[in-house]
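Usage

Read records sequentially. Each one opens with the input sequence:
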Amino acid sequence: MSIITIMSGAYCNSETVIQKCAAQTGFRRIDDPMIVAEAARISGISDRKIQGAFSAKTSIFNQFTHEKERSIAYLRLVLAGMLDADDLIIDGLTGLLIPDTISHVLRVCIIADMKYRLLAAQQQEKVSEKEAAALIRRQDENIAAWTGAVRGATDPWEPALYDIMIPTDKISDSEAVALITQHAASEVVRRTGRSRQAVSDFQLAARAGEALANAGHNVATSAKNATVRITINKHVMLLSRLEEELKEIVMKISGVAAVETGVGENFHQPDIYRKYDFQMPAKILLVDDEREFVQTLSERLIMRDMGSAVAYDGESALSMVDEEEPEVMILDLKMPGIDGIEVLRKVKQTRPDIEVIILTGHGSEADRQICMELGAFAYLHKPVDIDVLSKTLKAANEKVQKKGDGLKAEG
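and closes with the structure output:
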């Protein structure tokens, strides 16, 4: 009894091969969307944000939220829980999360040369060769970023990551299926006592990773025989204090007998360890055309452990709302191009959950009334006391978090 993982490049005819494998073996097929949906359900993080973990582009807020790392922790937790079963085909990027120590997994990569993929993309998407190349490049960039994040490999098609490489431009579907099913039935990938223990270790490491991520920590976890190993890869001044905090969190997990900590190879690089505080606003978008003012404000908020990004005009702000999904905005009214009132109106039409704080030096009482009627959270005047602004931001963030908790409870 074994598990098959299949990683494939776009436009390599992998879907046909996977369907035939599932039909011939009778194995249950699990794909990335299924794992993403379950990770979203148990975490309260949206499907879209969990899915973003597979993207090469990382949110500008991620250094404050650890959202990508938290998403990976939940994907890992869900996948680990599924490995109690046998006779699975795990189709997609999540299969790369399974450690090599689990030996009853047959790791398959389906790939083809670029000429084959370009032609397939052109035919399937009805696009030009140039457009097909751009589609494949974007998807390959995402796959490469994911492989680097979870396996430390820069090349997602590196043969060392897999047991079998299937070149679908050179062999038929039937030959590919026969090759996979033949190896899946081999004694080499049968479940053993050692591989069962490796699954238990993986599950324990995943539970530890999820607990630490929920406590705001960004660290790597592994386990062996009920001992959890925590690796810190970013520099922290009070290392021993952090280690004690991490140990205290993990020792509360059922099944953990001991916890070891250590630093990784990136610990001494110029990157600072930052614990995420869930009570502090971490996705604040500052919108103001006064560059010196808004940059200084951003720095002052960061010093108070509030994560912020900056836009200098309304058009850029609206683009960042779509791409980065801020939770709170601080918005000036008088800007070239789209003014603050129009930005507020558009944001509340498309993303009503974003709380918007107006901060202006030129607004009138009529402007204030319009902004509050449009749904602004608060209306403040420049110059503003940083403590007043901080309290307003925290209140806005509390409102956002309560909405999120309500949606999680409904789910």
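Summary fields computed downstream for this record:
- The chain has three domains: 3-189, 215-263, 284-410.
- The longest helix spans residues 386-410.
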